Amino acid sequence: MNPQRHTDDDMRGVKAALLRAAKRARDLARQTGTSIVVMRDGKLVHEVPPPDHQDQTTARST
Where are the domains of the chain? Predict the structure, then answer.
């Protein structure tokens, strides 16, 4: 996947917004003890976020 530069102001913030939404979904699932649906190896799976605040989305974004 090649990163592309977008000139559209709405598109510039999409990646950051998606990462924030994923973090919020994991935080909410952690607080309520529920699972989230993620894609692993091309398959949708239910996953319970780990109890700590270091999750894979944060680790991958750096």
Answer: 10-60
